[in-house]
Design brief:
Elements: H1 2-24, E1 27-29, E2 34-39, E3 43-46, E4 51-61, E5 66-75, E6 85-92, E7 100-102, E8 105-106, H2 107-122, E9 128-135, E10 147-154, H3 157-169, H4 178-187, E11 195-202, H5 219-234, E12 237-244, E13 250-251, E14 256-257, H6 258-266, E15 276-280, H7 285-298, E16 305-313, H8 316-321, E17 322-328, E18 334-335, E19 345-353, E20 358-367, E21 370-372, E22 379-381, E23 385-389, E24 401-404, E25 409-413, H9 444-470
Length: about 475
């Protein structure tokens, strides 16, 4: 019985404490409250060697009791094509390109369609101009006229697209003079351009060269074509050579496989003669031209961070006592429309942050008209932590997450209560002349006494029941 009584007294004490805590944590008006900036901390996170995040105070308005925070992230890797750049697409239009590689799709259609995709992506860079050249053989086979300049370097997307389309719809030549296509491209770069590229797209081993014998493989044709590649490369031109649809069977006149003949000139993908060499099948054309070659030319694969999620967590005191709103929408990616109240965060998602790109957004916290009196005089961090995640982030623990708890800090102060003046007459002070002023928004004494009475009744009933059971 004694143990039971002790438990009941403990229970009563806990209940009374909860009641008093609840009653004292009153909501009050913030009309006369002040908002002060305590510490203007800047949160910086080194996400990778070349990506940096910063969370900082953008503005603090003491009068309106609000503050604005900016989130910013930057990829400081060297920008793609930082100087004027010219790129020539040198495209094979020999008869073999007309072979059907899938129902109603020729090899030439697959190559030119992929080339247009590559061109549109490259021209997104303001410093890039594209030129277009076709090659095969014509009336003067074995001369520079086997290649045709369809467009000098231009930044006009429509002009580039039309030039590539003209190859698909134009006349095809009988043989393949890669030497003429490479030479003509090199002759048409601007004299003052320092950044030059050639993208060669072909389906055949050359069987003629400029000034060389015609209709022959290997030998002088191979020697001259390889020398042209090496000479152009030595002049500082970056060369990307793609060969597709070349089967590994013997060429009848030489008894050497087409693959071996190609390797005499271009080397292998692992050890190319110059630049990059892609030896692929026809079903790899689209991905190789529009994705792989693009990544290799721009050289941003290792410098771009993908699927970036930035989680900004807020303390409960900030959420409860401040209204949240966005000031600036993100210039990159998307952000939560509002705070996730269960986990207390917003998340900013960026699909890809490339070299030279910067992302930012800003939001504002404004003190609510009614606040919790418990925050009076407390130093409040404006956020709990920032977490940044991406599979491209390398951490020692393997979590792919970096974080920081640093943030600006503010303080809310409520006005001190002014004590009532001491009366100077002998009026009976036991009777008030007017209604006694109350603090907070609730009648605390009445509520408190009432709740204590209810608890006392509950305890009394319980005592009665226990005593009855003992008897």
């Amino acid at each position: 019985m004694k143990k039971t009584k002790n438990k009941l007294w403990v229970t009563l004490f806990v209940i009374l404490m909860l009641i008093s805590t609840t009653c004292f944590a009153a909501s009050v008006s913030s009309t006369d409250a002040t908002l002060t900036l305590v510490e203007n901390n800047v949160c910086t996170i080194q996400v990778t060697d070349f990506v940096q995040f910063e969370k900082s105070l953008l503005a603090f308005d003491k009068t309106n009791k609000e503050f604005t925070i900016q989130l910013a992230i930057a990829n400081t890797a060297e920008e793609v094509f930082p100087e004027p750049t010219e790129i020539f697409l040198v495209i094979d239009n020999s008869l073999s390109m007309d072979d059907e590689i899938s129902p109603n799709v020729t090899r030439l259609a697959a190559v030119t369609n992929s080339a247009k995709t590559l061109a549109s992506q490259l021209l997104e860079n303001e410093n890039v101009d594209l030129g277009v050249i076709s090659f095969s053989t014509g009336d003067e086979e074995g001369t520079i006229t086997d290649a045709h300049l369809l467009l000098a370097p231009s930044h006009d997307v429509e002009a580039v697209t039309d030039s590539i389309d003209s190859i698909a719809s134009g006349e095809l030549g009988p043989r393949t003079n890669i030497d003429a296509g490479l030479t003509l491209a090199n002759q048409n770069f601007s004299e003052d351009c320092q950044s030059k590229y050639i993208v060669l797209l072909t389906d055949g081993v050359p069987n003629t060269a400029v000034g060389g014998p015609t209709q022959t493989y290997s030998g002088q044709t191979a020697t001259k074509t390889k020398a042209t590649l090496q000479n152009i490369n030595a002049q500082g031109v970056h060369i990307f050579s793609l060969m597709t649809g070349v089967v590994d069977v013997e060429e009848p006149s030489t008894n050497i496989s087409y693959k071996t003949l190609a390797e005499e000139i271009f080397g292998t993908p692992e050890e190319p003669t110059v630049g990059k060499f892609y030896y692929i099948t026809d079903n790899e054309i689209e991905q190789t031209v529009s994705e792989t070659i693009l990544a290799d030319i721009t050289n941003v694969a290792d410098s771009t961070i993908h699927d970036l999620d930035i989680y900004d967590y807020f303390p409960q005191e900030i959420i409860d006592n401040f209204d949240f709103s966005y000031v600036t929408s993100p210039n990159l990616g998307t952000v939560s429309a509002e705070i996730n109240l269960e986990d207390r965060y917003i998340v900013w998602h960026i699909d890809a942050l490339a070299p030279g790109q910067n992302g930012f957004l800003a939001y504002k916290f404004s003190l609510k008209s009614t606040i919790n009196s418990e925050i009076d005089g407390q130093t409040l961090p404006t956020n709990e932590k920032v977490e940044i995640t991406s599979e491209d982030i390398t951490t020692e623990d393997g979590s792919h997450t970096v974080s920081s708890t640093v943030s600006p800090q503010v303080q809310v102060n409520l006005p001190e209560e002014t004590p009532a003046p001491t009366p100077t007459n002998t009026v009976d002070n036991t009777v008030a002349n007017t209604v006694i002023p109350q603090t907070g928004t609730s009648n605390f004494p009445i509520v408190f006494i009432g709740m204590v009475a209810i608890v006392a009744i509950i305890i009394g009933v319980r005592f009665y029941q226990l005593r009855k059971n003992v008897k």
